[in-house]
Every structure is written in C-alpha cells, then in structure tokens.
C-alpha cells in the first residue's frame, strides 16, 4: 500500500503532518476502513474517498484516538481561574466571559474549565465555554457527558463527588457544569471557522500544534491570535511553548501553566537555515518500553494491528542509524512504535535521524513530541534549542536553554 496519498489527504483535511504519527498508523486506519467498506484494495478505497465526503470523515475518525482526562495538568486550570478572577475584577464585572476549548476531544477539558470556575465561586451564568472538535464521535460522547474511570486519572478526584452523578453507565456530568459548555463540530484548517466570532478571553489549545507542519502551526497560531481578546490568555501544551514567541505571543510567566499573552509586536516568520547533520549516536540506549500516547489532540497513533515479526530494539536501531542507514533506521522506528507504542526514546531517535538527514522541520516535530512525553529530557531540550537557534528563533532557543539550566541545577542539588 502507498500510504503517502492518504497522508496527503489527511494533511489537506486536518492539517495533519503525516510524519508526526508515521505512515504505518495511516496504513492501519486505511486497512480498517477497507474492511469496513468491504472493498478489495486501497485503490478501490481511494476512489471511494474521492467521491464520498462522509467516508473522508470516517477515515478521520479511524485515525483519531482521543487521550484525555479531567483536571489534566492542574497548574493550567489554577492559572486560568486566577486570570479569570483578576480579569473580572479589573474589567466589567457584569460581562459574561468567553472561553474556548479547541480541540475539545470527548469533553473532559471544557467540562474541567467549567468545574474549576464553579469551584472558585463563579456562577455558571458568568461564563460560556465554546468547545470545538473535528470528530463527530468525540462530540457525541462529550454531549452525552457520561464517563468511565479512565477519565478520572488525576491524583485528587474529590471533584467527582461535587460535579457528577453515579449511574449504571458511568459518571454523568451534572447539569450545572453542562449548562455553560456548548459543543460544535469544526476544523481548525477551515478558514471560515469562528469567522466573525467575538474575541475569547481565555483559549485552551493544547497538544494540537505538535501534529502540524510548520506552515499549519503558523497559520493556526495566527488564527488563535485573531480569536484572542487583546488582554486574553492562551494555554498550550508544554511541548508547544517554543513556538509562541515567533508567532506574536509572550509568556505569562506562570509556572507549569504554559500560558501566553499577546505580544506587542507582530509575529515575524523566521527563515530556516539548513541544519548541520548530526550523528544519532548521542541517543542514550534505554530499555524498550511502551508508554501510552498522551495527547488530548485529535490525532494520535492508533493501535489496530500488531506485526507478525518483531522489529529490532532501540539499541540496534541506533547502531543502524550510526552506520548511515538512516532510511532503514526510520522504518525500524515506525515498526517499534507499532509494536510498543510511542515513547520518548523512539521519538528522540527519530528526531536525530531527521536531523542527520537534513530535515530540521521533521526533527523539531519529533523533539517536541519527546518533550511532551518527557518534559525534562535534557537531550531533546539541547537538540531542539540548537535547531531553533539555527532557524533564527533565538528567543525560543533561549527559553529552552533556561529550562535545561534549571533542570541541571535541580539534578546537581
């Protein structure tokens, strides 16, 4: 199967960079849909996609595997509440504040935004949360508002007693939380999305940008900048913080919240310089381990089928890459992800392979994935800072270097 054309289709439909999840994940999604449609091969399925918008949506649903839970990353919600209260006191106390969750996945994030504000004593009538996602299935689950134990993974689940009712089907969100949250289907790459909408005081767009190519990242941040009120606050994932300075945002300097304000200056697009090839030998061998995909984004690697023959381990893949067989090593990494799932180690190796192959954009995406799964990875911080500096993003590089210095200081204590 040639997965490239299906990857290009998903790129056009979602803004998804096929390299961010690997062509093997797209192949598995296509194979699933071929069987579901009772077709013979991928050529037949391609013809179906060309003439059926509904089937394109089905393929999107096959690629999407939501991974989120309530009160994930508590510092972000604490910062949101503090900003909300300060904003209300400083501004018009009677105005309803507008919040946006994009993508909202299966609803845990927007409902958490509401619960956090209600727990702070804010009446439900004082805020509105617009929750948008490309997945119709995810939105159906969100509107249903019934969740299993997997959605309650935070250390403190006392909020469940306050805001949910226990039912035979699971825990149902109380109507007080549901009332200010409004779900709708929408695609971030659609230029008409939220066209003419009033500005938002608070926007959550976390762990989506890491799955886009540079062009789509810049376009998305430009859209978000336009949607954000002049004195509003934008929350992103920690692996995406390095993108913000070059796109017109300044850090709010709230520890571990990854919150940003509009910078005074307009964003300036930096010109990329070719990266100096680097040997992947700097990857430290680590035991092969499977980690669950963590993003609450609309695209993560799906796990539909396991290969019949296990691929080489990471240490062997590192030796293959060191020997200059970069293509073989990259293919082996995709097999490794299919067998064991995403992990910081395999993403770091893939980043170094892309780096050595002269593909700085691909390398940057993989280094950011490492930092999403393992925010304290010294190797990823170091390599990403070097690449950003080469591309002219000196502020982004400096922020990463400061994180690395703080990391080294903590280790030396």
UniProtKB/TrEMBL annotation:
**Pfam families attached to this UniProt entry:** CheR
User: Taxonomically, which superkingdom?
Assistant: Bacteria
Give a GO biological-process term: methylation
Sample GO molecular function, one term: methyltransferase activity
- Keyword Signal appears in the UniProt entry: no
Q: Disordered: where is this region?
A: 269-314
The record places domain CheR-type methyltransferase at 1-241
TPR repeat intervals: 344-377
Could you tell me the keywords of this UniProt record?
Methyltransferase, S-adenosyl-L-methionine, TPR repeat, Transferase
Q: What is this protein called?
A: CheR family methyltransferase
């Amino acid at each position: 199967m040639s997965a490239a054309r299906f990857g290009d289709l998903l790129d056009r439909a979602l803004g998804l960079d096929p390299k961010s999840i690997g062509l093997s994940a797209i192949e598995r999604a296509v194979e699933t849909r071929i069987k579901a449609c009772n077709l013979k091969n991928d050529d037949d399925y391609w013809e179906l996609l060309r003439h059926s918008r509904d089937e394109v949506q089905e393929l999107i649903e096959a690629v999407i595997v939501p991974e989120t839970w309530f009160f994930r990353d508590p510092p972000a919600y604490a910062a949101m509440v503090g900003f909300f209260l300060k904003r209300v006191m400083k501004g018009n106390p009677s105005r309803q504040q507008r919040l946006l969750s994009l993508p909202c996945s299966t609803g845990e994030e927007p409902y958490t935004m509401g619960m956090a504000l209600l727990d702070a004593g804010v009446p439900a009538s004082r805020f509105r949360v617009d929750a948008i996602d490309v997945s119709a299935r995810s939105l159906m689950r969100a509107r249903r508002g019934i969740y299993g134990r997997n959605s309650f993974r935070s250390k403190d689940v006392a909020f469940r007693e306050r805001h949910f009712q226990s039912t035979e089907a699971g825990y149902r969100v109380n109507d007080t939380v549901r009332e200010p949250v409004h779900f709708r289907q929408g695609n971030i790459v659609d230029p008409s999305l939220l066209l003419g909408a009033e500005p938002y005081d608070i926007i959550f767009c976390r762990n989506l940008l890491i799955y886009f190519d540079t062009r789509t990242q810049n376009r998305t941040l430009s859209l978000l900048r336009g949607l954000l009120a002049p004195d509003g606050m934008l929350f992103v994932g920690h692996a995406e913080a390095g993108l913000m300075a070059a796109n017109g945002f300044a850090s709010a300097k709230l520890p571990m919240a990854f919150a940003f304000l509009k910078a005074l200056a307009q964003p300036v697009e930096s010109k990329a310089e070719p990266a100096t090839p680097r040997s992947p030998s700097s990857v430290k061998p680590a035991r092969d381990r499977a980690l669950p995909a963590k993003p609450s984004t609309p695209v993560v690697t799906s796990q539909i089928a396991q290969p019949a023959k296990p691929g080489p381990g990471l240490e062997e893949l590192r030796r293959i890459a060191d020997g200059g067989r970069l293509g073989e090593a990259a293919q082996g990494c995709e097999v490794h992800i299919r067998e064991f799932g995403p992990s910081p180690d395999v993403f770091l190796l893939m980043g170094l392979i892309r780096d050595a192959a002269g593909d700085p954009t691909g390398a940057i995406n993989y280094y950011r994935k490492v930092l999403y799964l393992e925010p304290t990875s010294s190797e990823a911080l170091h390599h990403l800072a070097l690449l950003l500096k080469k591309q002219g993003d000196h502020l982004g590089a400096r922020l990463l270097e400061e994180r690395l210095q703080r990391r080294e200081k903590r280790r030396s204590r």
